[in-house]
Amino acid sequence: MTSKKNPALSTAAKQRRTCLISPMRLKLALGAALLVILSFIATNIVVYDKIRDEQIEYSSRIAEENAARLSDRIKANMEQGLGIARILALTAENILADKNYPAPRDFLNKLLKTTISEYPTFLAAWMAMEPDAFSEADSTHAKSQGADSSGRFLPYWTLAGGLHVETCTDMENPETGNYYQIPKQTRKAYIDSPNTYAVNNQMTNLVTISVPILVNGQFKGVAGVDFSLDSISRAVKALAPAGQGYAMLMTNTGIAVAHENPNIIGLDIFKYDRELNEPALLQAIRSGMNYNRVVKKDGVNFYEIYIPIRFSDMSGSWTLLLAYPFQSPMESNPTAFILAAALTTLAAAAMLAWAWLIVKRHLAKVELLCQRTTALLSYPHTEPLVFPPGDELHGLSRAIESLVYDERHEADPPNHRAGSQ
After folding, report:
1. Which of 107, 226, 399, 419 has the maximal Cβ count within 10 Å?
2. What is the mean predicted confidence (pLDDT) over 136-164?
3. What tens digit of pLDDT does each residue of 237-262 get?
4. Taking Cα atoms as reference points, which of 322, 312, 157 lies closest to residue 239?
5. pLDDT of residue 40
6. DSSP state of 135
7. What is the 3-state secondary structure (H, E, C) of the chain?
8. What pLDDT does 201 receive?
């Protein structure tokens, strides 16, 4: 009897292992469903990032185009001012070199007056000479046109309040005299940081371009032109993006040239706006390099682009900042974003439910198969497994039946079965 039961027991162990095949497949199916759900979530994240990147790219393109146009415009004006200042300086050098030139002061006054009349985009055209720069002593021209009380030649021709002449001031002032002192020291053209000067008895924000006047290598003074910052500020403000966007123009030392707050023009912008004190940004501004970054102010994302404006043959550079607001999908259309998230969640839940029903259905069949296989292995039980054709487990059940019957046939030879009957 023992020899008859062993084959059945061996077969039962094999069938138990066989019954594990379907649950493994179902686990793979469940894993695939979970993978699809995770793919939904990953797709939403990728789409979110893609939309954000496209918004940044669009803001960047618009900012760069507008900044390039304005920087070209500002640079063209400055280059024109530099060219005019060079002509004024060169003319003064030739006149000073000719000690017999008749009435040199009158000629230079006429030159400055004509210049500012023909170039009304400038606020003023001027010269500031060293004491006794001419062959005649300054004292002989005290309080003459364009001279101060000592006779020093300092004509400042301006259109502010109508065409008239004043005198240059602050040449020796360490805070506001850079327009004179730096060209004197470097012997090079110089664009001064924005400063406030009294023009036509009104405090005016302006920027100065000055060129040294050199005769045989000897410094004789400077000639230059002034720009009113009002016109530059209007141009920068007009370029600021509508709505929450902003624009700013600063020197490479951080002095505000144009800003939405007129009270800080001429001041150190790094002290006013602490968010600019980012080491990499500071280095870019001071070195005259391009720089881009994304910042968040008052809950709004901004794409900031910093474009340097370099002036040929002049010390220093300026940096133009343009900032464009952009919003994430959640911020720009929260209703649509929440609806999309809800639909994605419902779709994921539906897929989980569908996967669970499929798994539950197949597990029930696998359990039934295992029960019937166990019964079939209970020797000498011969009841068929009964899974009709077309059922997912029909093939497996037929294979188990064949295996069991083959094992029994080998365990019980025909003569033994006949004797048992």
Report:
1. 226
2. 92
3. 777 766 678 888 898 888 888 888 88
4. 322
5. 65
6. S
7. CHHHHHHHHHHHHHHHHHCCHHHHHHHHHHHHHHHHHHHHHHHHHHHHHHHHHHHHHHHHHHHHHHHHHHHHHHHHHHHHHHHHHHHHHHHHHHHHHCCCCCCHHHHHHHHHHHHHHHCCCCCEEEEEECCCCCCCCHHHHCCCCCECCCCCECEEEECCCCCEEEECCCCCCCCCCHHHHHHHHHCCCEECCCEEEEECCEEEEEEEEEEEEEECCEEEEEEEEEEEHHHHHHHHHHHCCCCCCEEEEEECCCEEEECCCHHHCCCEHHHHCHHHCCHHHHHHHHHCCCEEEEEEECCEEEEEEEEEEECCCCECEEEEEEEEEECCHHHHCHHHHHHHHHHHHHHHHHHHHHHHHHHHHHHHHHHHHHHHHHHHHCCCCCCCCCCCCCCCCHHHHHHHHHHHHHHHHHHCCHHHHHHHC
8. 77
Amino acid identity for residue 243 in this structure: G
Residue type, 332: S
